[in-house]
Design goal:
Blueprint lengths: L3 H43 L4 H24 L2 H6 L6 H32 L6 H22 L45 E5 L3 H13 L3 E5 L2 H10 L4 E4 L8 H10 L8 E5 L4 H9 L4 E4 L4 H52 L4 E2 L3 E10 L2 E8 L4 E8 L8 H15 L9 E6 L5 E5 L4 E3 H8 L4 H20 L2 E2 L8 E6 L2 E6 L6 E2 L2 H10 L4 E2 L8 H4 L7 H16 L10 H11 L5 H4 L5 H10 L10 H9 L20 E6 L4 E6 L13 E2 L10
Parallel strand pairs: 1-2, 1-3, 3-4, 4-5
Antiparallel strand pairs: 6-7, 7-8, 8-9, 9-11, 10-11, 12-14, 13-16, 14-15, 17-20, 18-19
Length: 690
């Protein structure tokens, strides 16, 4: 007598066996249909204007799609599961035979007449593919007849308890259900990709390879997993399209073997299979596949998925190349900077006492940074204390073009007269070739220093600081000036007689977009060079796209995010500036509420909008100011235990004597000891891999 537990085990085992059988049965019925539909589709693309031939192929297409719909309906797993208690193997096989025979007989009759017509009209080029349709149709007929004859020893056994070995006898054949895309239709492809098709069935390989070749790809095909491994040892492929159900070595086993060899594991694999159950798809992804396409597939879908994976591969290779080039360029830059530093350091020490252009006497060095040295100075006529920034030759002013560029950017900076912008009083190039900018002298500290001291700022304090920055950016953007380097180092909290005044520093690297200055600047700007600090740069600037004042809004959003939770949103563990670029372009910002639950939802929404990837979805500075002004916030101190995580973004220049500070804009990213980093635009795309 069978116990209840044993009975449960038998039922479970029978269900699992039945599921396997159903999966195989769907595979074996669908794959001959794949060949029928695939070859007829390609013939419709190629045959001459023969109405009878085209009409016959269209009838085959229609009957094939009807057959596929019937198979999917009859073998729907949910329907079978619901009726498995009463579903008998004999009646099930008879149903498949009765429902599929009529449309299949129509295909067999029509292909026979088309073969006769092709022979009579000397359409010899099309006879091989017509013959393959006939072979696939006959194979399907034979399989249906086998199903109709299935029997079991116990006539009362349910179908769900039986897994007939004939379910694995026929080889699969590939199918596409829509017209192929030409190479011209895929003109967006950046380069030809090399693809390896792996399938044990000749028709599968033939159809898929031909479609991919028509799309312009370099395609090779092999019949199994072992051959694929040997082929991948011979040459490198950008992508492998791998069948799952193959003799000797399944697709899963082949991928496992590839992962064991270091030289082979880098090739991405897309699984293509007639197996459509969820467990197979899950296993495919867990085994390391990058995508899964179920047969029958749509040509556009396959080509789109292939191109998407190739774009990702190209991006990864480009990043690897650029990282190597960047390392080399930074090494060369470091050496060059060391040489110029020796000269510039000596010059900087002797400059005190020098009068520039008969107007500004350099008195005392305040500090230095990657782009130059800041001095306390005096206007000799007005007897007014000023800050004088003398630019390092490595800042780009060591050539006639660089000096002219510096002059034009000085014009840009001097146009900003807002009370919350550091006043640029003058700029020039001395008779000795020294480039300088004269600014108001400030007393206080930077936002960076406040964050280092306090860690996380309250919502009220953060908004209090950010609103004046929005005000000055609103005016600057109206004047056609983009700051391009918004960061905590460039936000100064000035101690004035009337109290604290927030000052935005360093419009010296701002970009004029007004026509009168833009043309001159564009002619002198090094193509592809990105000015700013990578941790705060907007995505569109990394991808060399047109940008406006909303690029500054994105940077300010990063600053506000940092003030509220103690860290910038993107912090790569390695890869430097290019890893940061990819994160800005492709990754979503970690939700602010997860970093600091005390941030008011309304403020979090504003920050989220400021950090939208697409500039058109971002507000302008004026809108941000209005929304911040509408908030009602309590000046509650931020909770302790959230220390500030700082990212080096520049060098703070301070005068202990005068308590004056100025920020020298650099392009550092990792730590203060790193050399200034010059980013060059590359193949980085501003869109996510689909």
């Amino acid at each position: 007598m069978t116990s209840g537990k044993d009975a449960d085990n038998q039922i479970t085992g029978a269900s699992q066996t039945g599921s396997v059988f159903l999966s195989h049965l769907r595979h074996e019925l669908r794959t001959p249909l794949n060949a029928i539909l695939g070859y007829s589709e390609m013939l419709l693309e190629d045959v001459p204007e023969d109405k009878e031939l085209i009409g016959g192929l269209q009838e085959i297409q229609s009957s094939g799609k009807h057959l596929l719909a019937l198979v999917n309906n009859i073998l729907d797993p949910e329907k079978i599961e619901a009726n498995r208690a009463t579903l008998k193997l004999e009646s099930f096989g008879a149903r498949i035979s009765s429902e599929l025979r009529t449309p299949l007989d129509s295909i067999i009759d029509r292909i026979k007449s088309l073969l006769e017509m092709a022979g009579a009209n000397d359409y010899t080029d099309f006879i091989p593919d017509l013959g393959k349709i006939q072979t696939a149709a006959n194979n399907l007929l034979s399989f249906i007849e086998e199903i109709d004859k299935l029997s079991v020893k116990d006539a009362s056994s349910t179908f769900i308890e039986t897994a007939h070995p004939s379910a694995t006898t026929l080889a699969g054949k590939m199918e596409v259900t829509t017209s192929p895309m030409s190479r011209n239709a895929l003109s967006y492809m950046e380069e030809v990709g090399s693809l390896l098709v792996v399938d044990d069935n000749e028709m599968n390989r033939d159809i898929l390879s031909r479609y991919l070749k028509r799309a312009g790809y370099d395609v090779e095909a092999v019949a199994g997993g072992r051959e694929a491994i040997f082929k991948l040892r011979e040459r490198r492929f950008d992508l492998v399209l791998l069948d799952i159900m193959m003799p000797e070595m399944s697709g899963f086993e082949a991928l496992e073997r590839l992962k064991r060899e270091e030289t082979l594991r880098g090739a991405p694999v897309i699984f293509i299979s007639a197996l459509d159950d969820t467990s197979g798809k899950v296993r495919a992804f867990k085994s390391g596949g990058v995508d899964y396409i179920t047969k029958p597939f749509h040509a556009e879908e396959v080509l789109a998925r292939v191109e998407n994976q190739l774009k990702i591969s190209r991006l990864q290779r480009a990043l690897e190349r650029q990282n190597q080039e960047l390392i080399k360029a930074n090494e060369e830059l470091t050496e060059a900077q060391k040489r110029t530093d020796l000269v510039f350091t000596a010059l900087a020490e002797v400059l005190p006492g020098t009068v520039l252009d008969g107007k500004y006497r350099i008195e005392e060095k305040i500090g230095s940074g990657g782009f130059g040295v800041v001095y306390h100075g005096m206007h000799v006529v007005l007897n007014r204390a000023v800050a004088i920034k003398v630019f390092h030759p490595m800042a780009g002013n060591d050539s006639p073009e660089g000096l002219e560029r510096f002059r034009l950017e000085g014009v840009s900076a001097s146009r900003i007269t807002h009370p919350n912008a550091v006043a640029v009083l003058d700029s020039g190039i001395s008779s000795a070739g020294i480039a300088y900018i004269v600014m108001e002298l400030l007393s206080g500290h930077t936002l960076t220093q406040e964050l280092e001291e306090k860690g996380v700022l309250s919502a009220a304090r953060s908004v209090e600081i950010i609103k004046p920055v929005c005000q000055v950016l609103t005016e600057a953007h109206k004047s056609g000036v983009i700051h391009r380097d918004i960061k905590p180092d460039n936000i100064f909290l000035h101690r004035a007689r009337e109290g604290e005044v927030v000052k935005l520093l360093d419009f010296g690297v701002a970009k004029m977009i007004e026509a009168s200055v833009t043309r001159a600047l564009q002619a002198l700007t090094v193509s592809g060079r990105i000015f700013g600090t990578p941790a705060y740069i907007a995505p569109e600037r990394f991808s060399n796209q047109p940008y406006d004042g909303r690029a500054d809004v994105y940077s300010l959003g990063i600053v506000l995010y940092q003030m509220l939770c103690g860290r910038v949103p993107f912090q790569p563990t390695d890869g430097g500036a290019y890893a940061l670029a990819v994160m800005h372009l492709t990754q979503e910002v970690p939700p602010l509420c997860e970093m600091n639950p005390d941030v008011p939802p309304e403020l979090e929404t504003i920050v989220s909008d400021m950090l939208k990837k697409e500039p058109d979805e971002r507000p302008f500075a004026a809108e941000v100011l209005d929304r911040l002004s509408g908030l009602s916030l309590d000046d509650t101190p931020a909770k302790a235990g959230m220390p500030q995580e700082t990212v080096s973004t520049g060098n703070i220049i301070a005068s202990p004597t005068l308590e004056s500070k100025e920020i020298e804009s650099t392009q550092e990213i990792a730590s203060p000891k790193d050399s200034p980093l010059i980013l060059q635009n590359s193949e980085i795309s501003s869109r996510k891999p689909e």
